[in-house]
Each structure stands twice: as C-alpha cells, then as structure tokens.
Amino acid sequence: MDELLNSQCIDFRKLLILKAKSLKITDQECFLLLVIMTMNDIGMKPITPSQIGQLCSLSLQQIDKTLISLVDKHFIARKRGTLDLLPIQKMLLNQSVEEEKDVDLLSIFENAFGRSLNQMELEIINTFKRSGYDDQMILDALNESVKAGVINFRYIEKILDNWSRYGVKKRYAPSTPTVRQDVDQNIKDYKWWAEDE
C-alpha cells in the first residue's frame, strides 16, 4: 500500500470528494484539503495560511481555525514546518494512522529559559504550532538557540523561518561517514623519492 502512496498513481482529490461525508469532513475542511493538495502537487512550499488565503476567499481566521480542526482530527499533520497529507491519504485508502505522542513544550521551554513563561510567550509558541511547525522542529530550534547562547523567541522564530524557507531539517544533522576507497597497489608502492630528475 505504501508503494501506491509513493508512486502518486491515486487521485486523492477525487477520492476525498467521494469519501468526505463518510469521514465526517465538513465542506470547508474538504475545500481546504483540496486547496492544500493542489498546492502540494504544484510544489508550493511552505504551505502557510497566508498562501492559502491568496488562493481562496476565506479569511485568515477561518483558514487558521479550519487548519487547527484538521490537525486536531488527525486529517493532516505538521512535520518539520510543513503540512503533511499522509494521514488523510491513509484514511482515504482505509489504512490505520498512527498517532504521535505530544511533547510537553511548555515545561521544556520553561527549563531552557529557567523561569515560567508569560502569556505572550505562550501565544508565540502557539503561533509556531499554527504556522505548521511540529513539536520536534520547535524543540530543535530551541536547542539551536541554546547552543548559540541566544535564548529568546525572536531568535527561535528566525531559525524556524530559515529552516522552512530553505528546507533544512536540522543545523547539525548527523552526517553519513565517508567511505574510503581502496587505492591502487601501484600508487601505494610508488617511490616518489627515488625518481630520476
């Protein structure tokens, strides 16, 4: 079944329209999913509420509310700053969708900052989540700011913006070790010091 998902041989837009009522997807949610699927197919990255707003007549508040509803109902997921359509695609193919456990961002941020967060800072974290950043990406950006010694929300926001703009997952991603190739025996045995000039 995963081969079908990866090969893109299924028209999920048609399947969504046919199965939306049985999955209890509202008309507005269905429309927004169709817009997101289309944006994804034509390669628009990252997909944000403001970009969606340029393509439809819904207000940003309606788009934001509907996106939160779709995430809460596990029709879409936020992964690395982008919207992931894999959950709805699996539902449309009658596959089970694994739910990810939520991370307690509040306590992790409070530990990093060494104090309780105020209401404005909590709203900034919620804004990160509404912008499509998943919990792990937010934590990675926090860790980057701690490594840099600049622990503030503006710096974290700039890290997330840069990562989503350039498609970077982590600054210090684990690299694969380089494989040393065998050197020809003639080159190994070459005695450069014994050359006649």
From TrEMBL:
Domain of life from the UniProt record: Bacteria
A Pfam entry, by short name: DnaB_2
Residues passing through the membrane, by range: none
Annotated InterPro entries: DnaB/C_C, DnaD, DnaD-like_sf, DnaD_N, WH-like_DNA-bd_sf
Limits of the DnaD N-terminal domain: 14-82
SUPFAM superfamilies per record: DnaD domain-like
Domain DnaB/C C-terminal: 107-169
Family note: Belongs to the DnaB/DnaD family.
Entry-linked PANTHER family: DNA REPLICATION PROTEIN DNAD, PHAGE REPLICATION PROTEIN-RELATED
Protein name according to UniProt: Uncharacterized protein
Annotated organism of origin: Coprobacillus cateniformis
Phylogenetic classification of the source organism: Bacteria, Bacillati, Bacillota, Erysipelotrichia, Erysipelotrichales
